[in-house]
User: Which sequence fits this backbone?
């Protein structure tokens, strides 16, 4: 590896292509080019733009929640119904319409074809449909704000019986639109998800073996496979709940007395819904987390100029997490009244998942060992991810261990835990990824100074929101309480803590304006980036044009000779070797 | 340099907050001290992991920050190191899991002779039922509920006739005796939650769920609902009074049995129709 001849180019004949290059659809009009585009790069931006747009609605909802918790009753507009509607919409939008859509529809669409050396997704037309169905789902969700009774306030888990009963806000039209929107979302996602999976399996260029793929692609690929397996659970749950609500079936509805009246339901099982929901809901956590894991690995490696440590272990950890995450859903139901013997099983599987997850964390920090660390904005966001993810991960060891979960479940401890681990941590990765790939998408750099200001306020602010929140949960403050009222076991000082958290939340929310200003300002005024500003190895940085043109690669598809982590290879002329650079004499890269 | 320092500061601030903040668990009032011990052990193990990982990261950020002429080492993997880290993590996980499962085993196995008490939830109130002289609770079904039978007891079940109904909003329990709480809802999901007892469980319409505990402190404690159950969720509260066996018996004697409540209601109905 380190012999002196390294540095000269070697003549190697690439393996022959297995299939002929396929002719792409070429847009003929402005409409098919920019609106009904079949180019994954445009679809990616449509997906990400819609996800961020609806995410801003969720941000406003979070302010409604925080203002009520800090200053109960001070704002007459926020009554109990509106509070629960805000809680529900914030959660549902962030988990499904924002995080899932931006990681898979946004980054998946942009990065998969470019990173595996394909001209586009394998089914471009279906890919386009996927976005438009997603947009429709989002619009149906938004419409629920404007129907009589408003959106559903059943909590993002939509548990029956309450989700469709009169004590819950939005039980007349809001819940119907919510369920319809989810059904549409799943239809749209399935079209996209099949595309991501098949493109990774069938669309890779010559030399791009699975074990040479960047971890970003591995993360998105594994998440897409999991989503295809998990979303059907939610799909059937939504269909059955919709039937219970509209046609009076009793899938989830037992005999119920409401206000002295006997309802016409009987024999259904509310816990069945919870099983179906969490069969989707837990993998969902990793559907968001795995792409973030993959992206953060690539950010760290690129900006630390060092190969990711233990690449093969990282891949197997992703696969192990994906498999295990399908059998841990019951840890959301330890006190649901299901057979308590399940507690043993789900506690074991849940804590087992800590092992591959911990290995990933070790390998991220070990990548920094003897590295050459550049504190660019994407790198800062990756570091912020490690802190928040480790912090949120270790509280998972409390909640996963069935007996410790008993006092903590349904308290603010849970809220703090999942926000840290699947709210803040993945959102930091999204920001890091945008700072990292913006130059490829636009040809211009985002402003680094603004980026760093944005990072420090967001990272430290979000930590200040969610770290102290765990302690409210330890005290015993329950979640989903419109107002706590006078409660003997909660000290008065907790109110001060709630005000502190709310102030931090308002600041962090407002600071996102810096980011949006940067994104729009840099579009015209950013420093021109050139094709590969970070001097990165993976294929998307080696395109002949930046932003990449239609078909990505010009006349010839790239040929891959090594893995995506050839940074600081001893003897190589520069501290990075692109995946498609012809091999050097004596090189033994994976 | 600065980045590394801020990361160290984040760790230090987190630890200081943990040890100095006034917000800790409410004093326990049940036998589930094991749960508190588990929580303490989990804190020490996970905090050690958090501090070690972030401080190591901060050291790397300082030591290996970019400087003119630095080049990173090239080390694709180190299976020995990865193996040791995996083994260490596995040991930590087992150290948490094994005692956790042991205590869960105790949690779900109710001791012989525990006193059965039923808590019934509905939007947005609690009511309670004790077995009468026969020590057995009568059968119930939401279908039996009407104005004269708010608990939905089966009127034909002889075991239910002497059941004692405590619908005043307060639940009284004797100290030092294992209590098996049987939980039932007639409308939506609820959750019986007393922070001082540490134990909680959902109420699910259509089935009866349970948990057990032994009160270890006399006094009044709040019962909250910990499963979102509609707009009145935060107001769904009641009081549990833990008192001596004698005080408890005195209180219980003042409550109506199911049969008495039926007679009272029937007499009331006759008066109403005579008027």
Assistant:
């Amino acid at each position: 590896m380190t012999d002196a001849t390294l540095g000269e180019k070697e003549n190697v004949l690439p393996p022959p292509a297995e299939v002929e290059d396929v002719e792409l659809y070429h847009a003929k009009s402005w409409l098919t080019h920019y609106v009904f585009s079949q180019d994954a790069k445009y679809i990616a931006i449509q997906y990400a733009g819609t996800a961020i747009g609806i995410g801003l609605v969720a941000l406003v909802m979070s302010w409604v929640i925080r203002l009520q918790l800090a200053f109960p009753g001070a704002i007459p507009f926020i009554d109990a119904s509106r509070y629960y509607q805000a809680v529900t919409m914030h959660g549902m939008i962030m988990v499904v319409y924002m995080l899932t859509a931006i990681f898979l529809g946004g980054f998946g669409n942009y990065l998969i074809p470019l990173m595996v050396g394909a001209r586009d997704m394998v089914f471009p037309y279906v890919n386009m449909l996927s976005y438009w169905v997603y947009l429709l789902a989002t619009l149906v969700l938004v419409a629920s704000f404007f129907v009589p009774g408003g959106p559903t306030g059943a909590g993002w888990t939509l548990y029956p019986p309450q989700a469709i009963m009169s004590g819950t806000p939005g039980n007349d039209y809001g819940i119907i639109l919510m369920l319809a929107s989810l059904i549409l979302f799943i239809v749209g996602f399935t079209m996209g998800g099949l595309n991501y999976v098949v493109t990774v399996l069938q669309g890779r260029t010559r030399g791009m073996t699975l074990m040479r793929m960047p971890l970003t692609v591995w993360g998105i690929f594994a998440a897409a496979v999991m989503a295809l397996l998990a979303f059907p659970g939610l799909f059937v749950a939504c269909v059955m709940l919709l039937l219970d609500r509209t046609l009076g079936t009793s899938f989830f509805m037992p005999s119920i007395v409401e206000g002295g009246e006997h309802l016409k339901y009987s024999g259904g099982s509310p816990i069945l819904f919870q099983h179906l929901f969490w069969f989707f809901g837990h993998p969902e956590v990793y559907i968001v987390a795995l792409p973030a894991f993959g992206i953060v690995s690539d950010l760290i490696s690129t900006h630390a100029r060092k190969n990711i440590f233990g690449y093969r272990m990282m891949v197997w950890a992703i696969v192990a997490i994906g498999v295990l995450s399908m059998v841990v859903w019951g840890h959301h139901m330890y006190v649901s009244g299901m057979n308590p013997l399940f507690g043993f099983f789900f506690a074991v599987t849940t804590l087992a998942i800590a092992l591959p997850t911990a290995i990933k964390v070790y390998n991220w920090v070990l990548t920094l060992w003897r590295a050459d660390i550049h504190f660019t904005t994407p790198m800062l966001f990756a570091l912020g991810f490690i802190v928040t993810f480790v912090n949120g991960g270790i509280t998972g060891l409390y909640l996963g261990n069935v007996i410790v979960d008993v006092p903590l479940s349904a308290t603010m401890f849970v809220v703090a835990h999942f926000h840290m681990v699947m709210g803040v941590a993945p959102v930091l990765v999204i920001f890091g990824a945008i700072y990292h790939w913006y130059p490829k998408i636009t040809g211009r750099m985002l402003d680094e100074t603004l980026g760093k200001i944005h990072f420090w306020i967001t990272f430290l602010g979000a930590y200040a929101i969610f770290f102290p929140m765990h302690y409210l949960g330890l005290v015993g403050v329950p979640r989903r309480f419109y107002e706590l009222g006078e409660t003997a076991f909660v000290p008065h000082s907790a109110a001060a803590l709630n005000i502190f958290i709310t102030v931090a939340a308002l600041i962090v929310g407002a600071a996102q304006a810096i980011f949006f200003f940067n994104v729009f300002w840099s579009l015209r005024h950013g420093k021109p980036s050139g094709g590969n500003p970070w001097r990165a190895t993976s294929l998307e940085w080696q395109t002949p044009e930046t932003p990449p043109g239609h078909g990505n690669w010009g006349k010839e598809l790239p040929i891959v000779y090594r893995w995506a982590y050839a940074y600081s290879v001893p003897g190589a002329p520069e501290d990075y070797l692109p995946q498609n650079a012809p091999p050097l004499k004596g090189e033994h890269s994976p | 340099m600065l980045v590394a320092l801020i990361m160290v500061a984040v760790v230090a601030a987190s630890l200081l907050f943990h040890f100095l903040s006034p917000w800790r668990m409410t004093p326990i009032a049940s036998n589930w001290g094991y749960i508190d011990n588990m929580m303490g052990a989990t804190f020490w193990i996970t905090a050690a992991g958090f501090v070690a990982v972030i401080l190591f990261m901060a050291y790397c950020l300082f030591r290996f920050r970019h400087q003119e002429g630095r080049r990173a080492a090239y080390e694709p993997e180190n299976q020995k190191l990865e193996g040791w880290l995996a083994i260490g993590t596995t040991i930590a996980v087992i150290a948490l899991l094994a005692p956790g499962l042991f205590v869960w085993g105790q949690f779900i196995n109710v001791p012989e002779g525990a006193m059965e008490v039923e808590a019934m939830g509905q939007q947005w109130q609690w009511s309670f039922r004790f077995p009468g002289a026969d020590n057995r609770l009568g059968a119930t079904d939401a279908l039996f509920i009407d104005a004269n039978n708010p608990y939905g007891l089966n009127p034909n079940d002889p075991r239910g006739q002497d059941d004692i109904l405590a619908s005043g909003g307060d639940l009284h329990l004797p100290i030092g005796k294992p209590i098996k709480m049987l939980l039932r809802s007639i409308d939506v999901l609820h959750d019986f939650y007393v922070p001082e007892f540490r134990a909680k469980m959902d109420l699910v319409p259509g089935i009866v769920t349970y948990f057990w505990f032994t009160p270890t402190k006399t006094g009044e404690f709040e019962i909250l609902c910990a499963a979102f159950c509609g707009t009145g969720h935060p107001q769904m509260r009641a009081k549990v009074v833990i008192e001596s066996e004698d005080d408890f018996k005195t209180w219980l004697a003042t409550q109506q049995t199911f049969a008495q409540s039926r007679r009272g209601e029937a007499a009331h109905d006759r008066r109403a129709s005579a008027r």
